[in-house]
Structures are given as C-alpha cells and as structure tokens.
C-alpha cells in the first residue's frame, strides 16, 4: 500500500471519528434520566421514555466501540502496520479496507 492510499484511509478514519464525536451530544440528551413522577407523565409515556433511554445507551456503547476501533486503526497507521492482517500478517485487500477501514483481519482469517 502506498503513502497516498494510507493518507486517504487516515483522512477517512478521522472523518469517521469526527462524525461520531458530533453524535455524542444527541446521545447524551436521549439517555438522560427518566422522570418517574406520575402526576406529570403517564405510565406508558414513562415506559416509552425508558425504552428510548436504553436504546440511546446501547447506541452510545456501539459509538464508543467504533471510536476505539478507529483509534486503533489510526495507531496502526502511525506504526506502519495498517492494512496488514493481525493474524497472518498478509496485506488486507484495499476493497475490504475501503468498506471498513477499521478491519484487522484479511478475508481468509475472518472465515
């Protein structure tokens, strides 16, 4: 993989990280504590709010996991190990990296 391709993947990863960082405020708002005062909110509304809160928390967990994968990929770029399978150390196909630049295994080792 040449320097231009690595630079393009680095830009893509940084954009992905920025996009996920932008979502953080929306997740914080959605996962706020649900008020349990029956005089102001009905039982079904509270249940709906609690379900929405749990969905937002799960989305936040997935966002944090993706951020960790992006950080790991950026570290591999800095170390010169990006684009190589962590198991067999063979080069990962550019088409696979284009779809998901955070992958750590080639197609053969994934199966």
In words, what does this structure look like?
- With 111 residues, this protein is mainly α.
- The protein is built from 4 helices and no strands.
- Helix 1 (3-30) packs antiparallel against helix 2.
- It is elongated and about 60 Å long.
- The two termini are 23 Å apart.
Q: What oligomeric assembly is this protein in?
A: single chain
Note the total helix count.
Answer: 4
Overall pLDDT confidence? 85
Task: Specify the overall morphology.
Answer: elongated
**Number of DSSP-assigned strands:** 0
Report, as a whole number of angstroms, the end-to-end distance. 23 Å
Q: What is the CA-atom radius of gyration, in angstroms?
A: 20 Å
Q: In what range is the share of β-strand residues?
A: under 5%
Main sheet specs = none
Structural class of the helices, strands and pairings?
mainly alpha
Record keyword descriptors for this entry.
elongated, mainly alpha, 4 helices, 111 residues
Layout: helices, strands, pairs:
Elements: H1 3-30, H2 43-79, H3 94-99, H4 107-110
Helix pairs in contact: 1-2
Brief account:
This protein is mostly helical. Helix content is 68%, strand content 0%. It has four helices and no strands.
């Amino acid at each position: 993989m040449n320097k231009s391709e690595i630079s393009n993947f680095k830009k893509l990863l940084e954009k992905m990280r920025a996009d996920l960082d932008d979502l953080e405020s929306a997740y914080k708002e959605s996962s706020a504590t649900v008020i349990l005062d029956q005089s102001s909110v009905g039982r079904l509304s509270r249940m709906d709010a609690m379900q929405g809160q749990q969905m937002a928390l799960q989305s936040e967990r997935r966002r944090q996991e993706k951020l960790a994968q992006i950080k790991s990929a950026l570290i591999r770029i800095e170390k010169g190990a990006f684009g190589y399978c962590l198991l067999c150390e063979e080069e990962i196909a550019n088409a696979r990296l284009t779809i998901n630049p955070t992958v750590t295994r080639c197609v053969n080792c994934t199966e």
